[in-house]
Specification:
This is DUF8192 domain-containing protein. It holds the Pfam family DUF8192. There is one protein chain. The protein has about 130 residues and is of the alpha+beta class. The termini are far apart. Helices cover about 35% and strands about 15% of the residues. It has a 4-stranded mixed beta sheet with strand order 1-3-4-2, with helices on one face. The chain has one domain. The longest helix has 13 residues.
Length: about 130
Amino acid sequence: MKESGQKHDMQVSSFSEIPTDLLENLDKMGIDSSIILNEYEGKYLNFIFKIDPQNFNLVGKKVGFKLSKKYYFNSTRERFYSNSTMISNSSLYIFDTTQKAESGGYDAAITSWDIFVIPIEKVVKRVKKWR
């Protein structure tokens, strides 16, 4: 069954928790502004949010990023290469069928460094403008 209409917080807080094969491909993430996640981006995000690809796989999904996909992965790389331990502070919102339609076809959205929890309804309305 597909997980949908849900907010997921990061389940991994340190680069040391991420498998080497995912980290070795950081340079292949966020290299374009496509809203469709490539294999490396999807697998990385599946891992840090502990999303079971059997239920919902982020690879190939249309995902909006609050500050842009390029910015998200560039800042992740900067923290990794500067030997920071903290990955990010992000939330993943997976949309149900109705929310996907309302958002303009996005499957999910990622917010970063929010002080307050953003209701999924607001994320659905805002995601079209984030691109």
